[in-house]
Design brief:
7 strands, alpha/beta, two-stranded antiparallel ribbon, Nucleotidyltransferase, domain 5, 12 helices
Length: about 325
């Protein structure tokens, strides 16, 4: 332990807790008490953390997502009734720089997260259901395997050595089987869950969105159906951001958002621009107005995610003509 926490009278003052999560340990800071400590990132460490927090009037716990290492403490604290906010690491880093903190250590990050909680009051983030977290892990594994396959295929194309080409073909064959097994498991888990199966049916009813894109949206954009049109486009990173100053109206660009859904939407937009009647006409109109191909595709991506959000909100399938 890096510090000794003195007992506090419950309700004496609100305490904001920042937790920097690593694979093996949790760095914890209590603001405004100024106390810090380090605990193991395991069930015993989380149990000790809960006993510590029970001695204080905790207003908010703030942490960053760290692969899957934050899940245990997030789920355990949320189930115990503490409000836990999971914030974007970039947002936390920019906040620290605004405060003049350029150093980056685990203890400093924990302190900045605690101060961020007190200053910005980020909204509590409920943990995702375990079934959805496992599905997300499978979807990410398939995406990683697909990227690896693309890299191997490129190496095979460039290779001129017979032995190396044979080895690469062997690796590609094994990777193809691996990807196929992951795809079957993803499909099985979605089919076995009535709620997820319904979401997949709604998403795949949209021309341009297939089972692979639908699985990415289900796993990585579980908020779809609960957002307004602007929020869902921003979350996917396809909302054009203003860049104006005085009388100057700068060009709009997309920025931020979730990378994997955005990549999936790009492939869906390529298909929708050809096979979705409404979006194909929309894409052609933009191109006829001298919009660049990627600008027009980005607009189609935005239309797709807004349409998906609307259909999930209304719990209905896509139809060519809606009443």
């Amino acid at each position: 332990m890096q510090g000794q926490i003195q007992p506090q009278t419950p309700g004496a003052q609100p305490v904001y807790v920042g937790i920097d999560v690593c694979k093996d340990h949790l760095d914890i800071h209590l603001h405004p008490l100024g106390h810090g400590l380090r605990l193991a990132n395991d069930r015993d460490g989380v149990s000790r953390l809960k006993r510590l927090l029970a001695r204080h009037d905790v207003a908010r716990v703030v942490l960053e997502p760290t692969a899957s290492y934050h899940r245990l403490v997030h789920r355990s604290l949320a189930q115990a009734g503490w409000p836990v906010a999971v914030v974007n690491p970039l947002r936390a880093r920019l906040f620290a720089e605004v405060l003049g903190s350029r150093a980056k250590t685990d203890r400093v990050d924990a302190k900045m997260l605690a101060i961020l909680g007190a200053t910005l009051a980020p909204q509590a983030t409920p943990p995702a259901p375990e079934a959805l977290e496992e599905l997300r892990e499978l979807v990410h594994a398939r995406a990683a395997a697909t990227q690896e396959r693309t890299a191997l295929a490129n190496r095979l194309t460039a290779s001129r050595v017979a032995v190396l080409k044979a080895e690469l073909r062997r690796l590609l064959a094994g990777l193809d089987r691996h990807i196929a097994r992951l795809a079957r498991e993803i499909g099985r888990r979605i089919t076995d869950d009535p709620g997820l199966a319904r979401r997949q049916a709604i998403l795949t009813s949209i021309p341009g969105i297939g089972a692979t894109v639908a699985a990415v949206l289900i796993a990585d954009m579980s908020e779809l159906g609960q957002l307004d049109r602007h929020a869902c486009a921003s979350l996917a990173g396809v909302a054009p951001l203003a860049n104006d100053s005085g009388d100057i109206r700068g060009p709009r660009h997309i920025r931020g958002g979730r990378a994997m859904p955005r990549r999936a939407l790009y492939w869906a937009a390529l298909s929708a621009a050809r096979y979705n009647p409404d979006l194909a006409a929309f894409y052609k109109r933009l191109r006829d107005n001298a919009k660049k191909p990627k600008v027009a595709l980005t607009a189609v991506m935005r239309k797709l995610i807004i349409l998906a959000n609307t259909l999930l909100k209304e719990d209905r399938l896509w139809t060519p003509k809606h009443a």
